[in-house]
Amino acid sequence: MQYFDVIGDGTKVTNSKPAPDVFLYAAREMGLEPESCIVVEDAQSGVDAAIAGGFFSIGIGPNERVGHATISYETMDKIDLPEVFSVCK
C-alpha cells in the first residue's frame, strides 16, 4: 500500500459491479462521500456502478461502451483535468 490509501476489490464487498458496493467501500474507507469522488472506468458495468453509487465518472474507451459516464475519453492520455474539474463540480 505504498502508493494507495485504500484498495477496494471484489473480496471486500458482497455485490460486484454493476452494484456500486466496491466504490462505496473505497469512499467510506477514505472518509469521503460519493459526490466528492471520481471513478475512472473502462467498462460499462463499472460506469453503471459509479452512477448507481452517486459518483462522478470518467469513462475510458469507445463511446458506445462508456459514453454514459459523466465525461468520457478515448484513452487515458486524453484526460483533460481542467475539463474534468469543470464538469464534476
State the total count of DSSP E strands.
3
The CATH H-level homologous superfamily: HAD superfamily/HAD-like
Number of helices: 4
Shape: globular
CATH architecture: 3-Layer(aba) Sandwich
| Radius of gyration, taken over Cα atoms and rounded to an integer in Å | 13 Å
Query: Secondary-structure element sequence?
Result: HEHEHEH
- By CATH reckoning, the class would read Alpha Beta
Could you walk me through the main structural features you see in this protein, from its secondary elements to its overall organization?
The structure is a single chain. This protein has four helices and three strands, in the order αβαβαβα. The chain is α/β, with parallel strands linked by helices and 89 residues long. The chain has a single domain, classed as Rossmann fold (3-Layer(aba) Sandwich), CATH 3.40.50.1000. A three-stranded parallel sheet has the order 1-2-3. The termini are far apart.
Give a quick set of tags describing it.
alpha/beta, 89 residues, 13% strand
